[in-house]
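Lab manual, section 2.4: Encoding a predicted structure.

Procedure: take the sequence of the chain (492 residues), apply the prediction step described in section 2.3, and record the output as structure tokens. A sample record is shown.
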Amino acid sequence: MVKKARINKALDRDLKTRTFFEKAAKETKQQFLAPSLGLAFIVLAGLSVSLILGWNSESVIIIAAAAIGAYMALNIGANDVANNVGPAVGSNALSMFGALIIAAIFESAGALIAGGDVVGTISKGIIDPSFVSDPSTFVWAMFAALLSAAIWINLATWLGAPVSTTHSIVGGVVGAGLAAAGMAAVNWPKMGQIAASWVISPVLGALIAALFLWFIKSQVSDQNDKIRAARRWVPLLIAIMAGAFATYLSLKGVKKVIKIDLQMALFIGLATLGICYFIVHPLIRKQSEGMDNTKKSVRTLFKIPLVFAAALLSFAHGANDVANAVGPLAAIVHTVGEGEVVSKVSIPIWVMAIGAFGLSFGLLLFGPKLIRRVGEQITKLNPLRAYCVALSAAITVIIASWLALPVSSTHIALGAIFGVGFFREFHWRLTSSSKEIIALKEQEENKAKSEKRVYRKLVRRSHFLTIIAAWVITVPAAAILSGFLFIILDSI
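Recorded output:
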């Protein structure tokens, strides 16, 4: 009996060990699945281009550039798209799977339909083309800019920090330009505008989001008859969102297909606002019938608009930011083929396809990490707060266009999330009763520690500081890396 018991014990131990290793092997496979598929996409992009162009001394450079462009597109999809769908996921208006599918479809549609057939070769006009007029120098500068931006965004994604892909490519171009032609090649006033946008974008986004949250809380959520207040204000709030997005898409979403000035875009937005109000008003009244007089009931009225907001933001992002992946690639293709440096080049369809599909694959393979960070881990979002974030993103871009300021959609969206979180902290301080404060004193040894604990639940300081630090060093980090890469490539 003793011998049998020892055998059974040994078998149990072996079974547990085997189960442990099987579980570890499964987790390891899952961990390497996404990087393996990403690498396969990069290789496939290069092989596809080789089939189109064949193999010769010129095509090898273009094939290598296509692989780097695919790598850049994957990283943009992994990092930047989270800002568009993160709030909707964090508020439970969308599941992670639904968000990934919607974003992938609309990102690709925006890139392919409204991404434009012409792109600037020098990002944002920050480098004088006359200083890098030698074709060979220009090609290696674009190589260095594209690769450095992709590496930096990859690192930021690994750290869990959403960063501006536009600022990353700007930093790459600046670094390569400095290494190639010196200080005189850089348009420093333009760089000053971009640096100013580091502050303007998030602050403006935060203020607008906080103002809308204050209005909704005071006029709807905190009213005694919440359903009656919702029937009055929610149709107007949804109509404002529709009008803002119509204006936003007119200015940014289709700007590479058709030029629409600010006045016409505002007219389109106002017309959309009016039409949407008359359509939504009876729908909200019907939807609110029989609802409980609670804040939760009010929040549910914002879920469907959030789904549309996520889709429209993704479309506009695909239309705008695909240029960060394919712009330098298109410039390399033209320069290698034509032997000249020009300010604007046409985009071959295969180049746009690499950018469009790279955005979607990057999102599907690596996007969930940043989506959770943006939507769930910075501050707690519900449909009402997520609505304020999405609306702020559209309105801030409109105001920036009116003021002719370069802004980052990433900074705006994150700034709006911070604004919502810090407004909740401020509101908590104003509305906390003396009874609540006494209760907190009893739970903690001193009031300051207690309040600090509560604040961290509203806005996680570690994420806030990590993201701000990543924003500040994006341009210089990409520039330094790009400069080193240019020196290495140019010396080969």
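Check your result against the sample. Residues 242 and 273 are 6 Å apart (CA to CA).
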